[in-house]
Amino acid sequence: MEAVRIGVSATAAGGLCALLLVCGSRWGKARLARALLRRLALRGDERMLDLGCGSGVMLVTAGTLLPHGHAVGVDRWLAWQQRGSDPRTCLANAAALGVSDRVRVATADMTALPFPDASFDLVTASLSVQTLRDRALRRAAVAEAVRVLRPGGRLLILDFTHTRQYAADARAAGLREVRRSRPYGPVFPPVRTVTGRKPRTEP
Ligand SMILES: C[S@@+](CC[C@H](N)C(=O)[O-])C[C@H]1O[C@@H](n2cnc3c(N)ncnc32)[C@H](O)[C@@H]1O
Question: Where are the beta strands (DSSP E) in the chain?
């Protein structure tokens, strides 16, 4: 009887986690992306890069806030990491929000970006850096994000894990005003942000 009761509550807990995951992924991520991007008070003409854009939640949301700018998403399109991680889905999502004119995608590895230094005003990474298999790769991704930021440009990383490392790596790569947030709710498990700004002049 006791074993049956434990079995039932474990199943219920599993079901609740699955429900939270699905709802968080479907609705929470877009809400969170919008709230975080709004907090940056963008002018609307920025050049933005999203690392590991997947199906494009952060990318296309940024597109809606950049009427005079552009948003570039890069990814290796690993469908096993996210259903819908492919350029066609990403561009269809941009079209659905009416931002195709300012959203572009490219196939690239976030640890070795094909962009010159100081190319972007904002670099974001939503739930993507944690998929890299080891610390050295995650550090390389953060360093690449900092390299392609222009002076004064901002970094926004959103992740479940490793956020303490990202903050340390961002500082080591030269970012200032680096902050690690408290956990946020509308996705499950809760996520933290790491934000920072590239100094305008060399220290
Ligand atoms: C969990 S998904 C997150 C997708 C999206 N950013 C979101 O928030 O929904 C992780 C994404 O990172 C991509 N990815 C993994 N390793 C990568 C790498 N080295 N370079 C670029 N993208 C990568 C995967 O293909 C996948 O689309």
Answer: 47-51, 70-75, 103-107, 120-126, 149-159, 176-180, 192-197
